[in-house]
Amino acid sequence: MSAEDLSLHAHKKGDAKHSHRKEVSNQNLLLIALVLTLGFSGVELAAAYFAGSLALLSDAGHMVTDSAALGLALLAQFIARRPPSAKHSFGFGRAEALAAFVNGIAMLGLVAWIVIEASSRFFTPHQVDGLTVTVVAAVGLLMNIIVAWVLSHDKKSVNTRAALVHVMGDLLGSVGALVAGLIIQFTGWMPADALLSIFVSLLILKSTFSILRESYHFLMEGVPLHIDYLQVGSDLKKVPGVLAVHDLHVWEMTPSFPALIGHIEIERMNDWPQIMSRINTMLLNKHGIDHVTLQPEEAGGIDEHTHDASLNDKVNTANNNQVNHQGDTFYVECTSPDGPHRMAYHAWGNPGNPKVLVCVHGLTRRGSDFKTLAEAMCADYYVVCPDVVGRGDSDWLKNPMLYAVPQYVADMACLIK
């Protein structure tokens, strides 16, 4: 990127001091774990083949998938350390959560295979060399304890913890293989091999589901688990100078870096710098949120030229020769699961014009932002610029969770019907 491009991402005084890079030490932990795991997995695979043990084979399979998981986690952390670019302004921190989710899915597949294979062997036991299984499983257990200890030093990264789940699963697999080997060696009861394999696989599922839920929640931009969304909204309303809060969103841009955007209604725009300072202090001290983007909106009444009508009503009833709107504001009645609300729209040009141009703004904007464009186009088009619900002159929704695409689409349908 050019120096100018980089300046777009630079943080000035008052901006959040978040980092888009991960510690190199985390990569070193994963690299050490990868070398140890991959090195022993080959030994265990060979031993499992010669001993004929499913428990040992499942443990070896765990170690192979552990190696793949660790490699994927290492790659994800390498990608996450890349600086932001013109196409990825937030950086690549989500690569870690994506790797964690993929690892979780892979673990589910491995568990399913082991359970199916073990169930078959339980009814038709295979001959197993108990001594070989015991010795190799004991060495594997020691190796997995070392690897788990190495990875446990990074407790914050969901990516590393997902890899740790793989290793813990392998550690349990080594325990199961060791117990199965001892039972077979001293009692000759072959079904122990399959039974212990199923038991260990089921133990792994709980941790796997936990990682899947957490990584899925992060990838879907859910509210950080340690933040109470409703409490944040309530605290914002209590800040002196804040009249109302709407269109509030809280999520994590990268792991451990929560962000917040929203609209704040205030009495006077001149008061905004002081109010924003109070908000920043409150959000950081009480909720740990330091990446805040808020749009202030000055409280005001309805324009004297506003009316309630749908866009289609305006087209059908207008006197083509006499009506020519110049940014006049109108309202259309819409509905949501919480009840009715009004959506405002601003119009330019002759409503009798069959050529209608509808301009819909982005997340933190309003319809009047299109004024310059509308004035330039209204000679040829009837230009309609709605305020998406919760923005501009439109009503706010009682339930903030309804600020989503389905509601926006439904409102636009009411506008043009």
Please, could you describe this protein's structure?
The structure is a single chain. The strands form 2 sheets. The protein has a 5-stranded mixed beta sheet with strand order 4-5-6-8-7. It is built from 12 helices and 8 strands. It folds into 3 domains: 3-219, Up-down Bundle (Alpha-lytic protease prodomain-like), CATH 1.20.1510.10; 229-298, Cation efflux protein, cytoplasmic domain (Alpha-Beta Plaits, 2-Layer Sandwich); 307-416, 3-Layer(aba) Sandwich (Rossmann fold), CATH 3.40.50. The protein has helices at 3-9, 24-51, 54-80, 94-123, 130-151, 158-187, 191-219, 229-238, 272-287, 311-317, 371-377, 405-416, and strands at residues 242-254, 257-266, 291-298, 307-308, 325-336, 339-349, 356-358, 382-386. Residues 1-24, 301-311 and 314-321 have low confidence and may be disordered. The two termini are 46 Å apart. The radius of gyration is 30 Å and the shape is elongated.
